[in-house]
Amino acid sequence: DAAGSFYPILKNEVVYICPKRLGGDDRQEYLQAEVLRVRHGEADVQVFENTRGVAVGDGVLQSGHMLSVSLGPGLLGQVYDGLQNPLELIASQHGFFLPRGLEVDGVDQQQHWSFQPVVKVGDIVRAGDVIGCVQEGRFKHRIMAPFGLIGDAEISWIQEGSFTIATPVARIRTQNGEEQEVSMQQRWPVRIPVSEPLLKEGLSQRLYPDEPLLTSIRLIDTFFPVARGGTACIPGPFGAGKTVLQSLISRFSDVDIVVIVACGERAGEVVETITEFPNMPDPKGGTLMDRTVIICNTSSMPVAAREASIYTGITISEYYRQMGYNVLVIADSTSRWAQAMRETSGRLEEIPGEEAFPAYLDSAVRALYERAGLIQNNAGDQGSLTLIGTVSPAGGNFEEPVTQSTLRTVKTFLGLSAERAYKRAYPAVDPLISWSRYLDQLSGWYAENLGDEWVAQVKEMQQLLIQGEAVQQMMQVTGEEGVTLKDYILYHKSICLDQVYLQQDAFDDVDISVPIERQQAIFEMLRGCLMNDQEFTDKQQVR
Amino acid sequence: EREEVSLQVFSGTKGLSTHSVVRFLGRSMEVTFSPNILGRAFSGTGRAIDNGPTLTEEPKIEIDGPTVNPARRVLASHMIRTDVPMIDVFNCLVESQKIPVFSVAGEPYNQLLAQIGTHADADVVVFGGIGLVFDDYHFFRQAFEEAGVLARTVMFVHQGSDPTVEGLLVPDMALAVAERFAVEEGKRVLVLLTDMTAYADALKEVGISMEHVPSNRGYIGDLYSQLARRYEKACDYKGAGSVTILSVTTMPGDDVTHPVPDNTGYITEGQFYLHDGVIDPFGSLSRLKQHVIGKVTREDHSQIMNTMVRFYAESQDAAQKQAMSFELSEYDERLLRFGSLFRERFMNIRVTMPLEEALDLCWETLAACFEPHELLMKQ
Ligand SMILES: Nc1ncnc2c1ncn2[C@@H]1O[C@H](COP(=O)(O)OP(=O)(O)O)[C@@H](O)[C@H]1O
Ligand SMILES: [Mg+2]
Ligand SMILES: [Mg+2]
Ligand SMILES: [Mg+2]
Ligand SMILES: [Mg+2]
Ligand SMILES: [Mg+2]
């Protein structure tokens, strides 16, 4: 501080490095960094930005808090970097390039929001309880009591009206008698789940996901479903269609809010989303952009911030889930996140594990996906966070550590195959290697909505694909002559299923999105056709 | 480490003695940027190597500058015509695209690059050569001169005889200059880089001497990020010009899963496969082509492209039948004829023609081999 005294240093505390040499525009830069290790009176920090020109003797400012994001109305529709700096605002102030060492608020501090209290003076609230509402686009944005609040607190003052998000709208008296002001904004550390303190205090419950997240993609919804509040991964070599598939999912899934984390991949793909979403209607009203938050830390942006970007996206998602919304998080790609972790770990000279990834890769992957889930808040509303991540395995080889750790964690695996992409069989998900553990988990929902036989029929069709593949393999050795007419018919049935049902044209206005009712109708028609044992006299006729 | 700094000596450390004097200039690497660099050639350290007038008084700019704000990018929407039909017709090069030529040693990738450098409808061409043998440097320079485009070209050339690490600066210099032309002068800039595998190898060499933990096959752990930092300079700027990057990536052992092509493929927007002297219509992909085909090009472009590729695939099947001495139908014969016309008229990399002419030639080629009803095209 000004008097030159030192304060205790927290692990994962944010500090700012203040280079003596000023930035290009004679601006004092504040390079954000995170304390990763403290030992022998020294702290190792990872700087989130380019460290060029940082010198021995430069000042370091302690912030006293961990890497955090601002949560409040105004998040929806924003495009942020990995540390929640709004990119559009930075562009309007600094032009084409991203200067380093800026401090910008994550949510607009000037905008006014009309706050409507739902509690009154004298009411008792606990962490996460709704104290009022704000209309954010078509969403009712719940303003919640601070997530870190301990015990009961009494509302001692609350006001209605139009305010900026930093303006106090209420005061609460905490259990130890302190008065605390509450505004429409909270800050929350990204490395700690929003729901963690609430679950611990019994103020929210985790529930077992029992409904599918309908994506309108046949292959996913019918064969390899993802639950609302569940997890899925999409590994595949470059060009196999990971980004296109994720983009389809983010456009057509039946959810309230989508958070897209562009983590270490191409900036151009984000530009496509930013350009197109504002012109695409959301079936529930408004445009797709109105329900979307984009965290954009693409490949040429700072690597350490890339590591943080996924947590930034998830924390924002958890915030909306806590209000009772169904949120979908799309992360492209988790491999770049893991590689960022690898770089940091290398710099700390930690003992490397497989392929130089840190030994804690597996637990980090698990902890990440564990932040997905279905939650019931204290008001009884259910919200879900579904997490779907792509994996970019080196050389397209699924045996590498990130794919393997991810497969051990997630419950749906959509494995893309270069071969199918090459044949333009999109989405290039290989049905013979992919799996979903939700088909059984959600069987209650299927029985109720699609009939008692649904799951069994889907499995029957999966068998058909497996058998068809076996016949094909045999034919590669023996030629068409070497298989029986019966097997030959089987093979052609599997091809038919693949071409008619699994493949779906993303560039066709109708085929691009197929609601579950229509999926069911097509499925039944096709199944009727394939299960009907027609008489064929020869292979020519089968073809 | 507190009292020590590590230095990378670009010209190598041979014969360097202890007690040598080190002078700190207080700035990072710079490159000359002014209108006078057009038509000139520089080494990997930025020194003029063409015996032209001295440029020491010209303004300089920092290299490896900050990344562009994604909010200031615009969606790709303009084509860069190269007059190479396998590119213009089948996998358009689009302004702001970054795309490599995947090839192997011995293939004519430098001819292809020179061809594009001389024909492309760009305002400025910035050439970056890494590990270029003298003959290739000479070849490029002569090609630009003979085509009369040297005056719009800047060359940064690291030659095989220069110290390996000097090659590391070439992409950064080329891209810094390209970026300035695009941002400050609104130019449409095409950057040609060859060979990015030599660049990755130079990174590997420095990484090892710095005792970094190597990852795949000895390459630096952050190869992806290092390559991406360069390739992502490709950009169409909102309200200014654009930078497009066409590079060469040679694949050691013709193996696309080798770390350099693999990481490159994850970064770039498609790739052109060059083998057996031709650009392969299969495997080659321009991820941005759908932004221009039929939108800024002729409306028959998309259909004709798909039809041509479909017939070429069929002609390959027919060729296989022929190779296995199976009986060929009359239709197979016509497919074979189509295949050989296709190779000769379009795939040969020496062929150059404007897109419209190429599209017309596609129709002619189809007409020469097939009946209208066989084309299965919508009217
Ligand atoms: N579902 C699809 N329908 C049509 N084309 C697709 C589809 N998925 C991918 N593609 C094609 O493949 C290219 C690469 O897809 P992309 O999703 O970017 O691959 P990845 O992210 O796996 O590298 C796209 O530019 C597009 O041309
Ligand atoms: Mg900030
Ligand atoms: Mg992708
Ligand atoms: Mg695990
Ligand atoms: Mg422009
Ligand atoms: Mg794409």
What's the helix and strand layout?
The complex is a heterodimer of chains A (543) and B (379).
Chain A: E1 13-18, E2 31-39, E3 42-47, E4 59-66, E5 68-71, E6 79-80, H1 87-94, E7 112-117, E8 124-125, E9 130-136, E10 139-144, E11 153-158, E12 161-164, E13 170-173, E14 179-182, E15 186-189, H2 195-200, E16 205-207, H3 218-223, E17 231-235, H4 242-252, E18 257-263, H5 267-276, E19 292-297, H6 303-322, E20 326-332, H7 334-347, H8 361-369, E21 373-376, E22 382-391, H9 401-409, E23 412-413, H10 418-422, E24 435-436, H11 438-441, H12 443-450, H13 454-478, H14 485-502, H15 516-531, H16 539-542
Parallel strand pairs in A: 6-19, 17-22, 18-19, 18-20, 20-22
Antiparallel strand pairs in A: 1-2, 1-4, 2-3, 5-15, 7-9, 7-12, 8-11, 9-10, 11-13, 13-14, 16-21, 21-22, 23-24
Helix pairs in contact in A: 6-7, 8-9, 13-14, 14-15
Chain B: E1 30-32, E2 41-43, E3 60-62, E4 79-80, H1 85-88, E5 93-94, E6 98-103, H2 109-119, E7 124-132, H3 134-146, E8 153-159, H4 169-185, E9 188-194, H5 196-209, H6 223-231, E10 235-236, E11 242-250, H7 259-267, E12 270-275, E13 278-279, E14 285-286, H8 301-323, H9 330-347, H10 355-369
Parallel strand pairs in B: 2-8, 6-11, 6-12, 7-8, 7-9, 9-11
Antiparallel strand pairs in B: 1-3, 4-5, 10-11, 12-13, 12-14
Helix pairs in contact in B: 2-3, 6-7, 8-9, 8-10, 9-10
The complex binds adenosine-5'-diphosphate (ADP) and magnesium ion (5 copies).
One magnesium ion binds at residues 362, 366, 405, 408-409 of chain A.
Please describe what this structure looks like.
The complex is a heterodimer of chains A (543) and B (379). Chain A has helices at 87-94, 195-200, 218-223, 242-252, 267-276, 303-322, 334-347, 361-369, 401-409, 418-422, 438-441, 443-450, 454-478, 485-502, 516-531, 539-542, and strands at residues 13-18, 31-39, 42-47, 59-66, 68-71, 79-80, 112-117, 124-125, 130-136, 139-144, 153-158, 161-164, 170-173, 179-182, 186-189, 205-207, 231-235, 257-263, 292-297, 326-332, 373-376, 382-391, 412-413, 435-436. By secondary structure, chain A is an alpha+beta fold. Chain A folds into 4 domains: 1-66, no CATH class; 112-184, OB fold (Dihydrolipoamide Acetyltransferase, E2P) (Beta Barrel); 207-433, Rossmann fold, CATH 3.40.50; 454-542, Bovine Mitochondrial F1-atpase, Atp Synthase Beta Chain, Chain D, domain 3 (Bovine Mitochondrial F1-ATPase, ATP Synthase Beta Chain, Chain D, domain3). In chain A, strand 21 and strand 22 (382-391) form a beta hairpin. Chain A is globular. Chain A starts with 12 loop residues before the first strand and ends with a helix. The mean pLDDT of chain A is 94. Chain B is an alpha/beta fold and 379 residues long. In chain B, strand 12 and strand 13 (278-279) form a beta hairpin. In chain B, 35% of the residues lie in helices and 17% in strands. Chain B has 2 domains: 30-52 and 74-289, 3-Layer(aba) Sandwich (Rossmann fold); 301-375, no CATH class. The relative contact order of chain B is 0.15. In chain B, helix 8 crosses helix 9 and helix 9 (330-347) packs antiparallel against helix 10 (355-369). The longest helix of chain B has 23 residues, at 301-323. In chain B, the strands form 3 sheets. In chain B, strands 2, 6, 7, 8, 9, 10, 11, 12, 13 and 14 form a 10-stranded mixed beta sheet that branches. Chain B has a two-stranded antiparallel ribbon with strand order 1-3. Chain B contains 10 helices and 14 strands. Chain B has helices at residues 85-88, 109-119, 134-146, 169-185, 196-209, 223-231, 259-267, 301-323, 330-347, 355-369; strands at residues 30-32, 41-43, 60-62, 79-80, 93-94, 98-103, 124-132, 153-159, 188-194, 235-236, 242-250, 270-275, 278-279, 285-286. Chain B is elongated, with a radius of gyration of 23 Å. The N and C termini of chain B lie far apart (71 Å). The interface between A and B is large, with 49 and 46 residues.
